[in-house]
């Protein structure tokens, strides 16, 4: 049995990197409850395992340390201290590079500084696409094992037929306006494009805190623009609190095309959920989204801005062809088993 201090353990990606029936003899420590989190909470951030003092206190409880997410607020010095603690106790470090550009940070500098510590120090590296692996080699002269993102939606929903309905619905979910979201220009192009397609509609969802003057995400200018378009009948606007999984999967299943409004980033769990549910995706050409799963692409990046023509054409292509790129439950199960086995083998290799 291999005991893994996984940062985190409770994230859906990490949970689905494990075999569904403990067949891989890998045990991931449960996430320590962060200070201030109630006893009933499943919140894992900020991760207590990032503290070198936690490593010193719990080194007898794990064999391998595997970092995924949650180090956004850690300075290079703090990460260096963490690595020193792992070295002190002879614990190998595995790092899965999900994000080469942090989607929550407008300035790429802090995340790159963190990667400059983590990538050279890791005993093994994993990432999700060949493009990300090539970038890691180019930047740091390190080789990363490429493993696909496992399923996000559970098997019963993957096998469930999509709801039958008429028309063609394009959706953009603005969430709470992550730093990499270019909502206003993307929605403007979509509203104009969809208006010219018979039976098509545009649905825009956004979290309530964007309309709350007391919230950090408050953006009255964007809300005014969205309400203006909604009043003109160009889109349906839904302002709501965070959706739980059941409501989120129902929302995605009700779309024919989900548009990812990103101007930077690397990979996407949202795209994987759409693949599980059979909802087509239009993804920007920044990052490596198109290498994850089949999708339509359009031009959007911080360097070049939004290519309005390519976004319009992606929507029209989806409208013409009605693509349904959907995972099968059997393929996802086999994929999960492969991912689990490679993780197990990496841990065993590191432990000799």
From TrEMBL:
**Keyword tags:** Glycosyltransferase, Transferase
Could you confirm whether the keyword Cytoplasm appears in this record? no
Record has Transferase as a keyword: yes
**Please, which domain of life does this record's source organism belong to?**
Bacteria
Q: Which GO terms describe its molecular function?
A: glycosyltransferase activity
* Record-annotated Glycosyltransferase subfamily 4-like N-terminal domain positions: 12-150
Signal peptide start and end residues: none
Among InterPro entries, the record links this protein to: Glyco_trans_4-like_N (IPR028098)
Name this protein carries in UniProt: Glycosyltransferase subfamily 4-like N-terminal domain-containing protein
What is the originating organism of this protein?
Streptomyces griseofuscus
